[in-house]
Amino acid sequence: MTTNTILLLLLSLVIAGGLSYFQYFFKAKSKSNVIILLAFLRFLAIFGLLVLLINPIISKNSLEITKTPLAIVVDNSSSITALKSDKKALEIYQKLVSKPALREKFEIQSYQFDNDFKTSDKFDFKGNQTNLDEAAKNLKSINKNLIFPTVIITDGNQTTGNDYVYRFDPVNKVYPLVVGDTTTFFDLKINQLNVNKYAFHKNKFPVEVFLQYAGTKAVNADFTITQGNSVVAKEKVSFSPSKKTASLNLLLPADKVGLQIYKANIQSVAKEKNSYNNIKNFAVEIIDQKSTIAIVSAINHPDIAALKRSIEVNAQRKVILFKPNQVNDLQDISVLVLYQPTTAFKAIFDNNKLAGTNKFIITGNNTDFNFLNQQQNNLIFKMSNQREDFLSEFHPDFNLFAIDNIGFENFPPLQNPFGTISTNGNVSVLLSSKIRNVATNAPLLAFAENQGKRTAFLLGENSWKWRLQSHVDNQSFEKYDVFIDKVVQYLASSDSKKSLVVTHESFYNSGEEIIINAQYFNKNYEFDEKARLTIGVVNAETKQTKNYDLLKGSNSFSANLEGLPAGKYNFTVKELNSNTSYASHFEILDFDIEKQFVNPDVLKLQQLALQTNGKAFFEDQADNLINTLLENKEYKSIEKNISTKTPIIDWIWLLILIAVLLTTEWFVRKYNGLL
């Protein structure tokens, strides 16, 4: 407090004393104990009020100790239970968090991870996926700019996400504590099975199988693929300590149309600790026809190869390439892709007026736009000879089919002649164009429909760069290829417009996300955001029914049916306002990826420890880990002097005290007849 404040407080004492004296002692006939008490109460009340008016500021200094965080992260996936290490993992966790020396040195942070990452000090080991990459990402953001150690209690067997070894911050030491029996057991395993989701009737489809062996002796095994009670493929496989892997390439007949379920199995005469990973179910949908996509171009361009690859990712599609003078019969063509049409395409346009094949027109610097204006009237082109680069802008209200924004705004520009492009009639725009971030209000990717015939327009060349950029952004071509597949699917279908459109897979693996997407359109075929969609799912065997609401996204509704057990299911999607419905079915295949392991992945966890300058420990070395953490001098507590200043007027209890003093004085005076 300042000198002026102290002087004011002394003056307050004098004033309070003077007023109390004047009230009770000046001209008083007697000075009884009651008068003295009343004078004292009045003195305290007046002094308190004067102190509040002066409002001195009280300063207080305190020491605050900031401890180094210690992140203890527990693997909550079911593989810990499968390796019979759940009790041991809990025991180790309790030992760490209850150690007084650790609690004194560190601020202990407790987390769990399976498919997700969250704060927790209770674990049930029921997670159906293991994602250590998610733990690495979250720890970086939680303790940003801090140097801290991390203890991970895990078996190291990751089933989803990026490789975790190099995802942790190398500045912060990671101490993996490996749980699970590291003894090598005899084990045969179907490590991976690759098969297309679709095959064509009366053809054969390939199945690629990767087998793995753990053991110390040579062994012979039988690998079979069965469908029901029938064996459709069988192979003998040999393993030894020097040959621990094998790959098989098999061709299976596609004899029946529809969803076909198969079971792959590897076994030998020897007994195994884990036989669950000997079996893997898979499914293939056999379709009875293949749509043919014809790409017609008079020039060579990388766009054509990129488009062909994207379309043929879907096994239902077959792409054939033609020059304009080679196309005579359009009878078997599902979609006609016309790349940069010129007058050389006149015969194709004339033939297609009779065939009525849906078209995908792609323009560019070699396109004859006067010719194109003569052949269609959906878009009207007034183009110059000047070339221009056009960026794209996604329209979230596009509603012809469900499509997500896959990062179109970040894609490289397409090149097309500069000019004016106007729409005519029923044209829906998915992407509009921009020139150096200035909107042109002209379409870049648009769709038109006249009398049941559909046409798509992509107005610019170099879309091959889009596919490459999508791969750079997502480490995969999948998102871009799905986008192209949806465009082709829309063009390949000539069905009349439906008010309720539902998209789903025919089968899912246990543990996967089971997402049902739906769109509801009003009478003008506009996406109805106010629709009320529900889905009822019925287990075909048990007849148990579950109901869900579909939640609205940007341009569709969706429901996540996570948690359903393996089996066959029938479902019905309903729009409650109009009572429109859609019914179909799917199957969940029995496959628990967390039960595929017989040992922890010690090598991976040791690599992680090495990469962060930490150290890996085994489940019987918890005490060694504790000593390592306690002896490390990098992690020291920081003392901070915290100075707090509090105005007296903020002390609510002082106001209460003054009220109590005045009330007490009034009652004493009342009791003694002095009022």
UniProtKB/TrEMBL annotation:
The keyword Membrane applies. The chain crosses the membrane at residues 6-26, 33-54, 651-668. The keyword Transmembrane helix applies. Keywords: Membrane, Transmembrane, Transmembrane helix. It comes from the Bacteria. PANTHER family: BLL2462 PROTEIN (PTHR37947). This is VWA domain-containing protein.
